[in-house]
Amino acid sequence: MDWNVLQQELIDSAQQLLADEGYRYVKSRKAFVFKSGDCSRFIRLRFVATPTGNRYLEAWCEVQTKESSSVFHRTSGVAKRHQNQYSAITGNSASSICLTAQSDLHDSCKTLTQYIEGSAIPFLTQDFSNSRLSSLLNDAPDLPCRYHANRETRAHFGVIVAQLAGYPKLHELVDVYTDLIAETNNGFYLPRFERLLVDLDMGNPRVTNKDLTSRGCDG
């Protein structure tokens, strides 16, 4: 089956499931989108065709809130045309769905249906208050988070929603994320995180464990 036709078949199949839930497919975002008040919910579909002939589909959920996104992009430095690519939640994903063989269409539609009905919709129908977002992002800040694929951006949104929700140990949370960002990608995103902290009126950036180590100190 033609690759473009196959993609459209799967999109149409998903649309039949999601229409009654209020979702519509937005081609520019490669996602099914449902907006309600301050919150936008997404089921993203990423179709991949490799040079070796393998084809597969990745599906996952995202949640954006105007309030947290507005705060994030005050200091993110992200060009406006790319800002809608950043979400507070990027997780709750399905396993990759193989689309290589002709026979895969029926099975892939079934797998996608199971993900949408059994995982995506139940997850996305919950209330995404700042308190709930903070719980999803910050319950174990020193560990990988299943609700955000990018650990640096997770830290940014984690601190934002924590402050908005009145997180009781905010400065301890900031300390954990500061060390995490300083130790990841050679601290590439640390300046962005520090700009966010200043914007949130959280004082001067803290000296990190990486800084202490580089000075020959015992953290």
Give a description of the structure.
By secondary structure, the chain is of the alpha+beta class. 46% of the residues lie in helices and 16% in strands. It has eight helices and six strands; from the N terminus they run αββββαββαααααα. Strands 1, 2, 3, 4, 5 and 6 form a six-stranded antiparallel sheet that branches. Strand 2 and strand 3 (39-49) form a beta hairpin. Helix 1 (3-18) packs parallel to helix 3 (104-124), helix 2 crosses helix 7 and helix 5 packs antiparallel against helix 6. The longest helix is centred in the middle third of the chain and has 21 residues, at 104-124. It is elongated. The model is unreliable at 207-219 (pLDDT under 50).
Mean pLDDT: 90
Strand content: 15-25%
Structural class: alpha+beta
Quaternary state reads single chain
Low-confidence stretches: 207-219
- How many strand elements? 6
Helix content: 40-55%
Count of individual helical segments: 8
Shape, per Cα inertia axes: elongated
H/E series, N to C? HEEEEHEEHHHHHH
Radius of gyration (CA) equals: 20 Å
Span from first to last CA? 59 Å
Largest sheet: 6 strands, antiparallel
